[in-house]
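Minimal example, chain plus zinc ion.
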Amino acid sequence: MSTSATVQTSSLEGALKHFFGHEQFRFDQKPIIEQVLKNRDVSVIMPTGGGKSLCYQLPALLRPGITIVISPLIALMQDQVTALQDNGIGATFLNSTLSFEQVTARQKDILSGEIKLLYVAPERLFTSSFTDFLNKVSQTVGISTFAIDEAHCVSEWGHDFRPEYRQLFQLKQCYPQIPIIALTATATARVRNDIAQQLRLTDPEIYVSSFNRQNLYYEVIQKGKKAYAQLKAKIQEHQGKNKGAGIIYCLSRKHVNEIASKLQQDGFLALPYHAGLSSEIRESNQNRFIRDDVQLIVATIAFGMGINKPDVRFVIHYDLPRNLESYYQEAGRAGRDGEAAKCTILFGWGDVHTVKYLIGQKTDPNEQRIAQQQLNQIIQYTESPICRRKIQLGYFGEHFEAPCNNCDNCLNPSPIEDWTIEAQKFLSCVYRCEQRFGMNHIIDVLRGSRRKRILELQHDQLSTYGIGQERTADEWRMLCRALIHQDYLEETTDGYSVLKLNNNSNKVLKKLISVEIPIAQRIVKPIGSEKRDASAELTEIENALMSQLRSLRKQLADEQSVPPYIVFSDASLRQMAQDRPQTPETFSGISGVGNRKLIQYGETFTQVIRQFCAENGLETTPSEQTFPTTDATKPPLTSKSEITSTHLTTYELYQQGMSLADVALRRNIRLSTVNGHIAKLIEAGYEVDLNKLVAVERQQVIQAAILKVGIASLRNIREETGETYDYQEIALVRANWEAKHQ
Ligand code: ADP
Ligand code: ZN
C-alpha cells in the first residue's frame, strides 16, 4: 500500500485533511513542512503538544522513499505507530523489544516499499547489521529524511543527555544529501545551538515557537488543614460532567500510595504510579489510564516521560513542584490536544519546610544553593499576584504581555490595599530586633507573644511589642512576603532567612512612600469558589450526546485494543456533539476526520447521532448518501511482526494451561485485553485451540453472521448474532476466520 501515490492533493492543507483530518496547520507547521519538502535541514523547537510529529509525518507521505525517525522513547514508538496505522499510513518500528523473527519480518515489509515511516532507537542505528540494512534501504526504496525526535538529548546542557545521541553526527557523514529535521521541546538557547552543531546540520532553518500553552489554565490554591478534602473538591470540579482524565502529582511514594487508596475508598477510579511498584503493575496502571479504564493516576514525577495521552484534562500538584521548569513540563502534560485543560498547585507552607529540610540534608554547598534558589522561584510563583503565564514564560526568556485571561491572577486579580501603616510597624520591628531575626519572630513580637524565647531576649520590652494585634499572623506573613517581592525588605539566602532593611525600607519608615499590596485571595474569599467547568461550553443536550459518543469511542477502542484517543480526540467528539453531522459530507467536515476515519467510523458514529436526534426531537437527515468503503475498512490483518512482547507474555502463560481470566489476574490487566492479545495471536498464525475458548455451536453462529455482514465491524457482527454473544468471543472467531481465509 503506497499511500503517497494514490492520493491527489492539491495543496498541503488538502493533504493535512486527507491523512490526518486536521483543518489547519498549527504554529509553524506549514513553513517547516515546506522547508523539509525542499530538502533543507530544519531545527524545530515547539512546546509539548504543539504538533511536532506532523512536521515530519506529512512530508514523509508526500515524497518517495522512507523517513527514518530516531526516537529515544521506546514506549512512545508503539503509540505513534498505532496512531499512524489507524490513519491508514504505513509505519513500523524496530527496537529491542522485538524478537529476531519480528525484526526480519519488518525489514522485509520495509524493503517491499510498504512503509513510509520507520521508527528506530538511537542505540540500534549504528550497529553493523543495521547500517548494512540502512544502506540497502537507501539503495532500494530510498531514504527521504532523517527525523530526530527529542533532539535535546544530544546536548549535555539539556536535562536528558543520552550518549548514544552523540553518534548521530555520523548520519550527515554517511548521507550528506539526505535532509535532517531535528525536533525538541527544550527551550534554552544553549541546547538549541548544541543541536545544530552536534548533528552537523547544514545551514539549518530554525523555527522557535512560543512556549505559551494558551489552552492551559493555571491556578494556585492555598493548602488548608483539610488538604485532602480540597483535593477531592478540585478533582470533582476539574472532571466536570464528562469525567475527564487527570494526573495528581505527589512528592513521595508513600504519599502517592496513601492518596491513591483514599481516593479509591471514596469511589474515584484512581491508580498509583511510582518507581517502587513492579514494572508490570506500572505498565498495567499506565495502560488502564491511557485507555480510560480509570480517570485518575496518582504519581510521583516518575510518571509522564514518554506518555503521550493527549486528552489529560487536568494536572494537580498536591505537593510542591521541584522547580519552575519541571512544573512547566509536568503541568504541560495536560491538554496536549489543544483543548482547554487546568493546572493547579495546592500550595502549603508545610511542604516548603519539608523541602527546606531536604535541602539542608544535601552535602554539596553548590547543590544546596541551587536547590534553595529553585525553591525560592517556585515560592515566588505561587505567592505572586501577577499573571502566572507571564512568570513562567519569563523564566524561559520569553516576554509576555499580561493579562492572559486564563490564570487565576488574571481572572480574579487580588484587590490592592494600602498597608503603609502596617508596613511601617513591621519594618520598625525588624529594626528594633537589630535585623537579626526571621519573619516568624518579628510577627511574634508584633502580636505580643509570651513565648519563652521572646521573654529571654527581652523583646517584650521593645516599643514595637504587641502593636500588631489587629492583624492575624497569616496577614502579617502576607505583608512580609509582599514587602520582599516589592523590594522594601531583604531576606538573607544563606539558609537562615534573616530579615534586613534596605534603602527602600528607610523611605517607608520616613513616610516618603506608601505601600500597596495585593490581598491574597484566600484571605478575602473562600477557596475554589470560581472557575468554569471544562464542559460548560456545551449545552445540556450536547453534553448528553457527547457522553454517548464517548461510550461508543470507548467500545470501538476496546474492540481494537487501542486507547480511545486513537479513535477520535476529545475535540472531534465535542464538534460532533455540537454539529450533529449525519451524512458523509458533514461528518468529514469534523476536525480529526480524515479519509480513513471517514471510512472506518463514519457510519457507526452518524448512526448514533441520528438516533440521538430522533429520540430528542432534533432535526434528522435521511441516510441517503452512503459512506465510502474500500478494502481499507477491513481491519489490517496482523502479521507476525505486529506481535510484541506483551502478546508473547500472554501467550506463554496461556500455553502453560492458564485460563484467560487467570492470565488477566496474574498480569493485572483486563480480561478484554488478554482476549485482544489472543485474537491478535490467532490472526498472526500462532496456535490457539479455539474450541477451548468458544463452544463450537457458538462459533457457527458467529461465522454465519460474518458471512452475512462481513468482517469489518464487530458491532455489525454482534447485531447479527444478538446480544447473548459478547465482543470477546466474536473477536476470537473473527480472528480465526481471518487467519484461515487469507
Ligand atoms: P508534540 O510531539 O509536539 O508534543 P504531537 O505531535 O504529539 O505533539 O501532537 C499533539 C497533538 O496535536 C496530537 O494529538 C495531534 O494529533 C494534534 N495536532 C497536531 N497538529 C495538529 C493540527 N494542525 N491541527 C489539529 N491538531 C493537531
Ligand atoms: Zn494570567
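DSSP finds 36 helices and 17 strands in the chain. The domain at 12-208 is CATH 3.40.50.300 (Rossmann fold).
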